[in-house]
Each structure stands twice: as structure tokens, then as C-alpha cells.
Amino acid sequence: MAVEYLGLSSVNGPFVVLEGVQGASFDEVVEITSTGNDGLQEKKLGRVVEINDDKAVIQVFEKTENLSLQNTHTRFTGRPMEIGLSESLLGRTFNGIGEPIDNLGEIVAEKKADVNGKPLNPVRREYPRNYIRTGISAIDGLTTLIRGQKLPIFSGNGLPHDQLAAQIVRQASLGDNSDEKFAIVFAAMGVKYDVAEYFKSTFEESGVSDHVVMFLNLANDPVVERLITPKVALTVAEYLAFEKNMHILVILTDMTSFAEAMREVSSSKGEIPSRKGYPGYLYSELATIYERAGIVEGVDGSVTQIPILTMPNDDITHPIPDLTGYITEGQIVLDRELNGKSVYPPINVLPSLSRLMKDGIGEGYTRADHQDVANQLFASYAKVGDARALASVIGEDELSPLDKKYLEFGKAFEAHFVGQGQDENRTIQETLDIGWKLLHMLPREELDRVNTKILEQYYPAEEKEQQPA
């Protein structure tokens, strides 16, 4: 039952305090109506974040500067924050709390759902299988994204993670031969206006907007709105996946903005800070978001996540990437040195990892030689690092012929396998063929990570004699 109160006890940043409250619930949605000096009424939304006896602390999703202590009406709705759900969400653009901002009118909802969601029952989870193709060789070939996985991208300020996110949205698919339904939920938090416009125009021009649901929280939007944006996006994703049997890829950028919003709000509440000033519950908050990915037994759909986060000062031990690494199943790391060489996307494959990759590739999924090619490319590129380190000490001219071959392989690998155009959409077969072409630069006896039968098929023994000395 909705209850309305007149007046506020205090206003502190994004929080208002109301005393004499009865029957309020944690996370309950509150409607706040204020009357300005000009007599015009303004409505704001908030949610209850703390209850202490008859005192309720309300987090307001908009600015609180114009709120009057005497002339403000606060209405407790008796329900948590909800979003209307329908398949007509596809192709639409919303703000951070799920309100349409594309001038196409309100959504006619089939149902409403609590944005806070529920964790997937571990007993009903199915092990992730099969892959999602991004068209990017460094991801598809070496850190394959599996349906139901959560695979973050660790980036840094100034690195092209926005372009990479847009390319993934444009190119992502379930593969060439799949007839299953696929869609993308894209949520941006704390982005500048020009970045938001870049995402919108890119999706429209490439013709993928009709299967993308977009949530945009801009840098000048209220900070507390950022805390709701990923939850709203994931609620939509779960509905489309588990009730409409679609395979949904969720891209969340930038989780660092989400964590910093949490730090700011926590500081306003006077909570005791933990590492780097972040609240002690940062881990559990990140886990409640990341763990909403997966496959449910008996349902055809799946939710796959790619959270993108910028590492402050490129520090991978910073609390945000550090805690994210504990929860997720691998990571894709963008490298500043590769970016300086004009390699796009600048993915450093050595620290990158997909822990579920082995179960969604190979015969029946991608191609029988996929795992062997990936293993060999990893091993060979690791030796490139050793050769480069040695060359920096004794000079490139003093290297052995084999080490020189590895240097050549390293340059070609970065230029032609990792590097590709922003509009270049490669199939799995093209990616693996490029991998074999690069491996042909090395002597056959160096390919010790490839099964003999597969090696004979793609690098026959007679080719060894044709290799240049």
C-alpha cells in the first residue's frame, strides 16, 4: 500500500532522510514531489537504502538541490524498482534507469520485474557449451567466448575499448550455420555525450540496432543512477534469454565508473572505506552483477557477459580488476605498447585467458584443429618475448637463425593475427587459416604443441624440405 509523507528531515548529497516512517522496506521505490519557487512541481525517483527504527534514508536518482525540507511530498510505493518487459525492447534506447530516451514512446509491457533480480540457482545451471563469434581473431582464436560465460575486457584510459565494444556489437553472432535467436543488451555507465553518440550512430549505420537494447547513463547524469544501470540491463537480458529463449550477449562499459559511483555514494553515507577508498562490499556487489550470467537447465536461451573496465594507472592489481578476476572466467587484456605500435585491437594474448574455451571449441563446435592451433600460437608468441629480450641485450644481428625466425613471426603475428580492421569480420575458419599461415614461418620441429595427425594435415612433412634455410 502506498503511503505519503510531507516534509523531509535532512538532505545530504544524493540522500534524503525522513523520520516517522512506518512499514518501509529496503530497496522500496519512493516518489518524491517538490514544488519550486515558481510553483511548478517536479517529480523524482528514489529508493530506500537504509532503515533505522522510524528513520528511512532514501537515495535519490536525480539532483537534490531543489528539494525543500518543508514542502516536499514523499510517497512510498510499497514495491521494489521494476522495469516493464516486452520483446519490443529490442531496437530501443533507454536512460540508466530504464526510461525511453529515443522519442519512440513508452514500452507496452507484458510483465514487470524487480531489477535487483535473483542469483541463478547453482543446481539448475548448465555447463556453458558452444561459442559466440565476435569476428575478432585474437578473441575467437585464442580466448574464445563461450555462451553463458562472463569474460571481462581489462583496458586502460586512452585505449580503444569503446571501438572494440562497438565492433563486437556489430559483428557478434552464433556462427554461420545457427538459426537460433540472438540479441545484444548494451549498457554504458558514466560515458561522455560524444561517446554515447558514437555508439548510437555506429549501431544505426551498421544496421544492428534492431537486435540491440541500449541503456545509456551519461557522465552528467546522477551518479546513483549508475548503480542501477547494469541491474536494469541484466533484468532485460534474463527476460529475453530465459522467457523468450534467446541467446543474449550483455556488454557493460565501464565497470570502473560503476565502482567509483559506489565509492562516492558509500562516502556520502559515511561508511568505513576499504582498499583504495572503495566500500568493503565491492566484491559482493560485483558478484551480484557478474553471476547473473549463465545457462539454465531446460531453457534454450543463455546470458553471456562482457564487462569492460578501465584499470586506473594500468594497474591490474587495482581492486576493480583484481576482484573481477576472482569472479569471472578469464580476461581479455588490452596493451598500451601494442596500441603504440598502431595494432588494433591491441589485445595482449599472453595474459589473456578464457577458462571455458576448451569446452566450446573443436570438432562439432569450431574446427578440429582449433585447440592445437591456439596452444601453438601461445607457445610460439611466448618465445618471441624471450627472443626480443635477448636481442635488446646482444643485438638482433647476434641472434641465432631460429631466434630471428621468432622475431619475424612475432611481427607478423601482431600485424596480421592480432591486428585487423575495425570493420573486418573474420570467420573462425579464416582466423585458424591465418594462424596456420603464421606457423608455417617456423620450422616444423618447433610445432611441438600440435597433434601429429593435425600437423600432417596442415603442415605436411614434404613442406619441411621447401622451407627456406
TrEMBL record:
Concerning InterPro entries, the annotation shows: ATP-synt_VA_C, ATPase_a/bsu_AS, ATPase_F1/V1/A1_a/bsu_N, ATPase_F1/V1/A1_a/bsu_nucl-bd, P-loop_NTPase, V-ATPase_su_B/beta
Q: Which UniProt keywords apply?
A: ATP synthesis, Hydrogen ion transport, Ion transport, Transport
Tell whether Ion transport is among the UniProt keywords: yes
Give the record's GO biological process terms: proton motive force-driven plasma membrane ATP synthesis
Looking at the record, the residues that make up the ATP synthase A/B type C-terminal domain are 359-459
Keyword check for Transport, yes or no.
yes
Per the database record, which ranges form the ATPase F1/V1/A1 complex alpha/beta subunit N-terminal domain? 9-78
**Which PROSITE patterns is this protein grouped with?**
ATPASE_ALPHA_BETA (PS00152)
Q: Which residues form the ATPase F1/V1/A1 complex alpha/beta subunit nucleotide-binding domain?
A: 135-354
GO MF entries: ATP binding; proton-transporting ATP synthase activity, rotational mechanism; proton-transporting ATPase activity, rotational mechanism
- UniProt function note: Produces ATP from ADP in the presence of a proton gradient across the membrane. The V-type beta chain is a regulatory subunit.
The family note in this entry says:
Belongs to the ATPase alpha/beta chains family.
| UniProt-recorded name of the protein | V-type ATP synthase beta chain
